[in-house]
Specification:
10 helices; EC 2.7.4.16 (chains A, B); 342 residues; alpha+beta; ATP binding (chains A, B); 2 domains; 60s Ribosomal Protein L30, Chain: A; 5-stranded mixed β-sheet; homodimer; ATP-binding (chains A, B); Thiamine-monophosphate kinase (chains A, B); globular; 7-stranded mixed β-sheet; Phosphoribosyl-aminoimidazole Synthetase, Chain A, domain 2; nucleotide-binding (chains A, B)
Chain lengths: 342, 342
């Protein structure tokens, strides 16, 4: 081990990725992008290939006391598909590597794979390989996905321009509040195992947490409508954090209107019950796996009647920064409170 | 959790993979193969894409008391490249997902990435993405690799035919004996921390264990010599286990000549010191990451003078089974004693 010791927590996830990435640069003509977008881009001559990967660890990313294995399997695929969607691509193949401790039976692993299979069917991808290993500490899932996109249809996150309209799919904050509800009921259960969980009226936000969907439906609808976003990424860390990535990589600012943030009724309800701000959940909750994208103003008519898409603001000059226009008329800076597992 | 409980150990790794795979079949025209070969094959029109993935877990696949982080980083890439080599392909891009506990410093992670970088340079691949997470139990590395191969040059493991010559690259058993030497010295050290490790004369086998190479060199030499193997896979679980995969998937038998098994002098030396059979190490040791392949008899002249290639036998009819012709003239069945982590 080297002598100097810098704690990983002092850099955080993005800081460490940045530091490690510095040492690497692409050397191959078919490596179109390196580290830094939702998926890596590989030149296949006729089109681009897309490669992305995600890791899910028990105790860090999920808690099996309230996450059913089948849902977990589904989610492990969906969150990877979401990265391909975020490049405006179509996923084709996935690999799944699994490490399991002897706490898990064959039947438990089969439950997990039933969820993986359901996701493969929903998103029309094939499971083509993987790895299987024992683990000394619970369950671990590593999924990689390969997809393709036409060269003139690929969408990066660094190509937004001032005055582009800022759009988001679905609604925000639900997955975070679903998790808070599940955590609350877990604590109640731990304190008093005889109590029934109080999940009534929270089915939507709980589903948002347990079984997120990748928005391939919107990708296909944009294609049909003849819209190629100018920039796009998926909302995994929270709208604020992901918008700041878009702004920083595109060298732009943004103005988001609080009143335009799409928030489901159940998200408001759960927020009220938990004494949390629904706006904070929408901005910083994370795990929504919706798409955040920008379009040219000329394309507004092509999306305005799509109920799955909300126009929440527009891009501005970089100097203006990323701001939230509140209902009260104030412009306040958007700051990332995203996830830091370290 | 489902009610029935079958222990994973009762099926083993390959048994569980078989059981899980049954539920999946490819649905896409561009998914050329599914689970079952070294890498998945994806149709890119002009050529084939290859996708493979491997998981390395601390305490299961490596022991950091004697594995330097830099070597581990190198090995994590090399073992994935080996899967692409085994399809006669050329690797292009890798993704690395890492989970680390707070036991590790930024500097330690940088050591690991220095090894990853060295392997990327040696094998001419680009690191294009990945994931980074905290872990509650040590270090975990998941690598995926993407490569390409001309459609008429791809080599599967199910296409060997009787009378094809059976070839192996490099030498066998070294990685296993290197591990045994390192394990022995670890025990000595634990019993008496003042003792110096006795590694003299074992540098080659230790290197075989700590820093295996993917045999891309041989892939390029076969290409130059105009040889396309009839079947190929890499020797990761041990010659016996991997040969049985080739035989079963190609529906053939094999006859291997003990006297033709390539075994390094240091492997003999370590085996003698440890009172182990060098032949058993060569057959069942695993982790050599050499290539096991078959060629048409007509191609013999093109490989016979290549010092990196040993012809160790030939394929026979399936009914004859896989046999070892011993120096004493006996034909004994080859059985897999490969790895089972469960």
């Amino acid at each position: 081990m080297p002598e100097q010791r810098t704690e990983i927590a002092s850099l955080g996830e993005f800081g460490l990725i940045g530091r490690l990435s510095e040492a690497f640069e692409n050397t191959r003509p078919d490596s179109i992008t390196g580290i830094g977008d939702d998926a890596a881009v590989i030149d296949l001559e006729a089109e681009y290939g897309l490669l992305s990967t995600d890791l899910l660890l028990e105790g860090v990313h999920f808690d099996l006391t309230f996450v059913p294995l089948k849902h977990l399997g589904y989610k492990s695929i969906a969150v990877n598909i979401s990265d391909i969607a975020a490049m405006n691509g179509v996923p084709g193949q996935v690999t799944v590597s699994l490490a399991v401790s002897n706490r898990f039976s064959v039947e438990a692993v089969e439950e997990l794979y039933a969820g993986i299979k359901a996701a493969c069917a929903d998103f029309r991808v094939d499971l083509v390989g993987g790895d299987l290993s024992s683990s000394r500490s619970g369950l671990l899932i590593s999924v990689s996905v390969f997809g393709k996109v036409a060269k003139d249809k690929i969408v990066y996150r660094n190509t937004g321009r001032p005055n582009d309209l800022l759009c988001v799919t679905g609604d925000l904050g639900g997955a975070y509040l679903g998790l808070q509800i599940l955590e609350r009921e877990k604590q109640v259960f731990l304190a008093n195992p005889g109590m029934q969980p109080q999940l009534e009226g929270h089915d939507y936000v709980i589903q948002r947490q347990l079984k997120p969907e990748a928005r391939m439906d919107v990708i296909f609808e944009l294609e049909e409508a003849g819209v190629v976003p100018t920039a796009m990424l998926d909302v995994s860390d929270g709208l604020a954090s992901d918008l700041l990535h878009l702004c920083s990589q595109s060298s732009v600012g943004a103005l988001v209107f609080e009143e335009n943030l799409p928030i489901d009724e159940q998200t408001y309800l759960a927020a009220t019950e938990l004494n949390l701000s629904p706006i904070t959940a929408a901005l910083n909750g994370g795990e929504d796996y919706e798409l955040l994208f920008t379009i040219r103003q000329d394309d507004y008519d092509k999306v305005k009647n799509n109920p799955k898409i909300s126009v929440i603001g527009y891009l501005t000059d970089q100097a203006a920064g990323a701001k939230l226009a509140t209902k009260g008329g104030n412009h306040i800076p958007i700051t990332a409170q995203g996830w830091n597992h370290f």
